[in-house]
Write a structure and sequence with these properties.
With 408 residues, this protein is an alpha/beta fold. It has helices spanning 5-15, 28-34, 52-62, 65-70, 79-90, 105-113, 125-139, 150-166, 181-193, 209-215, 239-246, 255-269, 275-286, 288-291, 307-320, 337-347, 380-392; strands at residues 24-27, 37-42, 72-75, 95-99, 117-120, 142-143, 172-176, 198-204, 249-253, 295-300, 324-332, 351-358, 368-376, 396-399. The protein folds into 2 domains: 1-320, Rossmann fold (3-Layer(aba) Sandwich); 323-399, ACT domain (Alpha-Beta Plaits, 2-Layer Sandwich). It has a 6-stranded mixed beta sheet with strand order 1-2-10-7-8-9, sandwiched between helices. It has a 4-stranded parallel beta sheet with strand order 5-4-3-6, sandwiched between helices. Strand 3, helix 5 (79-90) and strand 4 form a beta-alpha-beta unit. Helix 1 crosses helix 8, helix 8 (150-166) packs across helix 9 and helix 12 (255-269) packs across helix 15 (307-320). The relative contact order is 0.12.
Length: 408
């Protein structure tokens, strides 16, 4: 095997004191919610809010003095970029990071803040990586691969090593899979500590690249996912055989499950977690019977999530839970009609947040108006009670299933 437990152990010693030994904590809230005994490994608390800087440091320290002086190149849309840039600055290594055109300004700014030169090229990560490799080869610089590198895998394996040192009695370990560096390294470390532990990988449904490669299925990866950190179309050549040998199953999680997991982390643990980092919890919550009564470790791999995306996830979560509802009513276009609606909603415990008033278009009778009312409520039952009261008062009411204005 290309990477051994000794490699991971040596990597852990090498980076000791230079990266955070992130806490492993038991979660009472998630244990109650899932029915499993849940332990969290909080890599979201790292210096760059991701585990990626572990492998990056191991790789950079393996370079010769001449290679360090010449500089390094990486391609990433986020966490790998920041991990390489962070330690390159500490080691005085010139770093050039290729990021796809359209990468958010926040991610570019964070990477540049660590002293790296950012080049925006390529329509996607694959194309940016190709450009980065060409640049590295042409200039004699070392290309730092995000996962398909023995040093990177060994560094990421220190996550699993630490977790098993803290909780050696774990029965199951659930780990997100992108290219496979984190799960490959952590699986080696975990199996060394406990050969009977079950390792479960998690991929987004839209990017089942590793599961497809292992099962010989056609590649269907593509689309917009909240778990962009594991939106990888090409799994690692070095990581794949390790995963095939040591990982018992790979679960695919839906976008709604990923959104819910991000929301649950924030509400129950007060943790800001990105979509990829929330994938293990999404798998746990979507498959409760599989993990019920087991002691389960979840690697929270990162916390870099755009604030606007987080805001949208939280608001959509409120809608799913019935804590925010959009009601469409037909009312008389006369003074006092809207006041009656407002009073009925308020008297029944609803809080009106927004009102959209429509009276001009041809499909509404001239003596009627149509209004959309966004109401803050306790839950779905509370919404239905308010709707019932409005109908009993003579109003035509329907609850919209989304944020569109056409009832869709």
């Amino acid at each position: 095997m290309a990477v051994s437990f000794d490699d991971i152990s040596n990597a852990a010693k090498l980076i000791e004191g230079r990266v955070l030994r992130t806490p492993s904590v038991r979660s009472n809230a998630l244990s109650r919610l899932s029915g499993a005994d849940v332990v969290l490994k909080l890599e979201s608390l790292q210096h760059t809010s991701s585990f990626k800087l572990r492998g990056a440091l191991v790789k950079l320290l393996s370079l010769s003095e001449a290679e360090q002086k010449t500089g390094v190149v990486a391609a990433s849309a986020g966490n790998h970029a920041q991990g390489v840039a962070y330690h390159a600055k500490e080691l005085n290594i010139p770093a050039t990071i290729y990021m796809p055109v359209g990468t958010s300004f926040t991610k570019v700014q964070r990477t540049e803040s660590y002293g790296a030169t950012v080049v925006l090229e390529g329509d996607g990560l694959a194309e940016a990586r190709e450009r980065a490799q060409v640049f590295a080869d042409a200039n004699g610089k070392q290309f730092i691969h995000p996962y398909d590198d023995e040093k990177i895998i060994a560094g990421q394996g220190s996550v699993g090593l630490e977790l098993m040192q803290d909780f050696p009695d774990l029965e199951i370990l659930i780990i997100p899979i992108g290219g496979g560096g984190l799960i490959a390294g952590s699986a080696i470390a975990a199996k060394q500590a406990n050969p009977d532990i079950e390792i479960i990988g998690v991929e987004a449904e839209l990017y089942p690249s590793m599961k497809g490669a292992i099962n010989g299925a056609p590649d269907t990866s593509g689309g917009q996912t909240v778990a962009e950190g594991i939106a990888v179309k090409t799994p690692g050549n070095l990581t794949r055989p390790i995963i095939e040998e040591r990982v018992s199953d790979i679960l695919l999680v839906s976008e709604s499950a990923l959104e819910l997991a991000v929301q649950v982390y924030l509400e129950s643990q007060r943790l800001v977690v990105e979509g990829a980092g929330a994938a293990p919890l999404a798998a746990l919550l979507e498959n409760p019977e599989r993990f019920k009564g087991k002691k389960v470790g979840l690697i929270v791999s990162g916390g870099n999530i755009d604030s606007r995306l987080l805001s949208s996830i939280l608001m959509r979560g409120l809608v799913r839970q019935g804590r925010l509802a959009r009601l469409r009513l037909s009312i008389s276009d006369s003074p006092g009609a809207l006041a009656i609606v407002s009073r009925l909603i308020g008297d029944n415990g609803g809080n009106i947040i927004e009102v959209y008033h429509q009276r001009l278009f041809y499909d509404i009778p001239v003596k009627l108006a149509e209004i959309d009312v966004v109401v803050e409520t306790l839950d779905t039952i509370h919404v239905e009670r308010i709707i019932e009261k409005l109908i009993n008062a003579g109003f035509q009411v329907r609850r919209l299933g989304g944020t569109s204005t056409d009832g869709g």
